[in-house]
Design brief:
eight-stranded parallel beta barrel, single chain, alpha/beta, 12 helices, TIM Barrel, two-stranded antiparallel ribbon, 2 domains
């Protein structure tokens, strides 16, 4: 069975703040222990020890290491090898062939490839099809900085002329981040893997985060990542199907059990694509999470 997250709300926790680990796990579906941007550089040696000593559930824990080619990469790899964790997020993913020969231990890793550089976007097909990659994630801010840009989103005083952003309103993503978001989703699906949607950087904007998560769920993302626990409830709510959606999906599933071809539900013709959509809705029931984990 393909890898899927334990739920729709993933949360970063700085690896140099071990006192936050348990609370982060309680307030999210999966924790991402962060050795990269969320961790002070001078604290990384101790943060690696924190990773080794961490007692969080490995099935619900991801470790973000520093990117290949960085001074911290080999040290991070060694720390994760000495830990119970095998779900690893690799930032600035471009050429992952380094994992083909790093060590026998890394061969068991399930890699979440973080796409946040221009080269990473252009190498998406290769990255998505790497045998250890189980999911794609993307980052708007690093990508914008790498492009020489100054803002990944339209400002509140800007008027996008082409329906900018998820909601078609100011505050949504500019064109290249929007394109990257779509490409990540497409390449993940083409490779038979899942896509995780990017963070909402404005941690006080709960409604904006909710709107993006609603769009992410409807578009096909498996989960949304957050840097603040206060946004996780809105993300979970966004991915949870409505009663109307559940009623429709149940009718479709019941009809499919009795029909091998197309059939009607409430006057709507149901065929294979709509059946698949109904299956996704049913899989997103809160009580279905445990059944669909791998």
């Amino acid at each position: 069975m393909a890898w899927i997250p334990a739920g729709p709300g993933l949360l970063f926790a700085p690896a140099d703040r071990p006192e936050r680990f348990a609370k982060a796990a309680q307030r999210s579906d999966m924790v991402i222990l962060d050795l990269e941007d969320g961790c002070r550089a001078e604290n990384r040696p101790q943060a690696r020890e924190n990773i080794k000593a961490c007692e969080l559930d490995p099935a619900r824990t991801i470790v973000r290491i520093n990117p290949p080619g960085s001074a911290d990469f080999d040290l991070d790899v060694a720390a994760v090898e000495a830990s119970p964790f095998t779900q690893v997020m690799v930032p600035k993913s471009e050429d992952l062939s380094i994992f083909d020969a790093t060590s026998p231990e890394t061969g068991d890793w399930q890699i979440i490839a973080l796409i946040e550089t221009p080269k990473g976007v252009l190498c998406l097909e290769e990255v998505a099809n790497h045998p250890q990659v189980v999911a794609l994630f993307w980052g708007a801010e690093d990508l914008t900085a790498a492009l020489g840009g100054t803002s990944s989103r339209y400002g509140v005083d800007e008027l996008p002329t082409n329906g900018g952003g998820v909601s078609g309103q100011p505050g949504g993503y500019r064109e290249v981040p929007r394109l990257t978001r779509a490409q990540v989703l497409l390449h993940a699906a083409a490779a038979g893997k899942v896509a995780l949607d990017s963070i909402h950087a404005d941690t006080a904007d709960v409604e904006g985060a909710r709107a993006e998560a609603v769009d992410a769920a409807a578009s096909g993302f498996a989960a949304t990542v957050s840097i603040h626990p206060g946004l996780v409830p809105a993300i979970r709510e966004a991915y949870s199907p409505t009663e109307e959606q559940l009623t429709w999906a149940k009718k479709v599933a019941e009809g499919a059990a009795e029909n091998s071809g197309a059939f009607a539900v409430d006057g709507q013709m149901i065929d294979a694509p709509l059946l698949r959509q109904a299956e996704v809705i049913l899989a997103r029931r809160p009580d279905a999470n445990a059944e669909t984990r791998s």
